[in-house]
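Consider one such protein record:
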Amino acid sequence: MLRRLDWLTVFLYLLLVFFGWINIYSTTLTEASTSIFDFSTLYGKQLFFIGASFVLIIIVLSLETSFFERFSSVFYIVSVVSLAGLFVFGKTIAGATSWYDLGFFNLQPSEFAKLATALAVAKYLSDIQTDIRKPKHQLYAILIILIPVLLILPQPDPGSALIYFSLFFVLLREGLPLKYLGFALLLVLLFITTLKFGVVWVCIGLGILTSLFFFFKREKFKIPRIPLVLFLIACLSISLSVNFVFNNVFEQRHRDRFGLWLSLEKDPVKLEKIKKTIGYNTYQSEKAIESGGFFGKGFLEGTRTKGDFVPAQHTDYIFSSVGEEWGFIGTSFIIIIFTIFFLRLVHIAERQKRDFSRMYGYGMIAILVIHYFVNVGMVIGLLPTIGIPLPFFSYGGSGLLFFTAMLFVFLRFDANRLKEL
């Protein structure tokens, strides 16, 4: 089995974990620090979790692949129960009741739920040979994804809830009609454009597009008039509901982040002030990356990192420390490593002989890719701040352990593929 393990992926994993720890060490080192094995420090704790991850890898690789498939439903039920239990036994950190206090460390069950949900989706789609084009099967698959989301949103932890929607890419890969993806993208586009330009301009834009469509292309596309009118009514209804949802469903901190991201404040002076207050984290992160220049300031030489200018720089904003200390060269290297890593995982997923292994692989890849894109986009100011860590890189025991488990469950499936008919 070890000979059949994809060692290139293992090497890339170790590289990411190593560079992640180096940057955690840099961002959390203090004058009182004495040894890298000081487990009272954050970098010492992360080193402990890295060791625990290696033990977890041995355990995962020692198990038969049938174990994960056979007990995938059990894992899913346990994850749902653990998420529900947070409302009674959960510990609140940074405004979110997303943790269990186990004494020696805090456990975030939503991380385990990602692994369990990916297994459950793969199990449902493969075990009973589901035809995902049937509405009933689409409903069941979507419910498997939505149940954890509905338990995570009230914590409130919208960032973690967002990650679960990445599993819809598994459904698309297995034959879910593309109209669902189109509708989701349209929903996001209508939401953003309505916030940015207002309902009136969105309605005018829809009216112009419709008129042009009827005048030039209706015969070519052969779309019946009544469905098109209903579609337009639906678009207008969504646009008209955006302000209500934004003002009554979103919390103030979420409204502030979207307002900053879309630059809803027109006064440049006030906008700059908002960036330095509400958008303080992103503002300082951008300044830290900018200060690194092309080659960076050098390891342990980041003035903004040492001065604690960037909050949560060892967790959600760790990529900014790479930019400051290692510069454009360092950030490019990390991006290249992640890109090769993801492409390799896609290659491995495509060569699977069993549907379950392939579907689980794509679920895991989708989760990791969304984490990566949202985190880096958030750190450089392209996306609003929603508190999502960088896989294998950011500080956090729960994240590292379950990201590692997700990856090596998949590698265990791949190592067994030659024995599967």
